[in-house]
Every structure is written in structure tokens, then in C-alpha cells.
Amino acid sequence: MLNIVFLTNSWLTSFNQPGLCITVAMLLHYFLLAAFTWMCLESVHFYLALVKVFNVYVPKYILKCCIAGWGIPAIVITIVLIINKDFYGNGSLSKSHPYSNFCWIQDNTVFYTSVVAYFFLIFLMNTAMFITVLLQIHSVKTRTQKTSRFWKR
């Protein structure tokens, strides 16, 4: 959906409908945040599968993942819309190119808070999960080598 909204954004902007532009910008923002959130959930799943291998039963795991994956971005979008729906709009990249119009976030503070900071938090969490998984794999490898040396003796 992110790709579809992104690819149709310029075309939909050409209709010069402010409501349509706000909707397209909001959908683009939502699906971008949803992609980041699902990436984070994938790293949590990776952690559970490789580090917490045993006794990891989480009741209604998929439902909880879906609520987090689709709900957290919806909360961010709702907060932005409640504060001011005009944060979304038509931003021209260049005045000399009329077809370069693009519906997106118009306020830099909102952009840096709701996209860049959000991505940065997801990136930090993914990095922490990745390092934890690498350390776990390394410790398993070390234990296996020690065990094999013991049996060789």
C-alpha cells in the first residue's frame, strides 16, 4: 500500500483538491510508519525465535502483533490530525515544475518528530535486538566448541 500511495501521489495531487491531498498525505504517512512498525515487530519475533527459544508462548500472539503493527501508526496519525490537519498538504518541490507537487507533511517539526524520530527509535530497537541475537549465537557456538573439546579429550 505504501508503494501504491507513493506512486499515485503526484497524479492525485494534480486534481487540486485539498481534502484529497490531506487524505493521500495521511495515508502515505500511515503506511510508512506501519512499514517501520512491522520491521520492529519482525526483530522482536527474531529475538523470540532465536534467544527465548523455549517457554515463549504468548497468547494471541498474531492478534497482538497486528494490533501493534497497525495500531501504533494509527495513534501517531490521529495525534497529528488532532493537533492540526493542515500539517498535511501539497508541497511543491519546485515552482518551475508543476508536476512535481507532492502531498506530504508540510511542517518540519512534525516531520522530524513523527517520521525521523520514529524511525530512529525503531532502528535503535532493531540494532539492540540484532546485537542480542548475535551474542546469543556466539555464546551457543562457544559452548558447543567447549563441549566438543571436552568429549575429544
UniProtKB/TrEMBL annotation:
Topology class, membrane: Multi-pass membrane protein
Protein name, as recorded: AGRG4 protein
What gene is this protein translated from?
Adgrg4
Which keywords annotate this record?
Answer: Membrane, Transmembrane, Transmembrane helix
State the compartments where it is located.
Answer: Membrane
GO cellular component assignments: plasma membrane
The UniProt record lists the G-protein coupled receptors family 2 profile domain at 1-153
Which SUPFAM superfamilies does this entry report, sorted A to Z? Family A G protein-coupled receptor-like
Q: Does the keyword ATP-binding apply?
A: no
Does this UniProt record's set of keywords contain Membrane?
A: yes
- Biological process per Gene Ontology, one example term: adenylate cyclase-activating G protein-coupled receptor signaling pathway
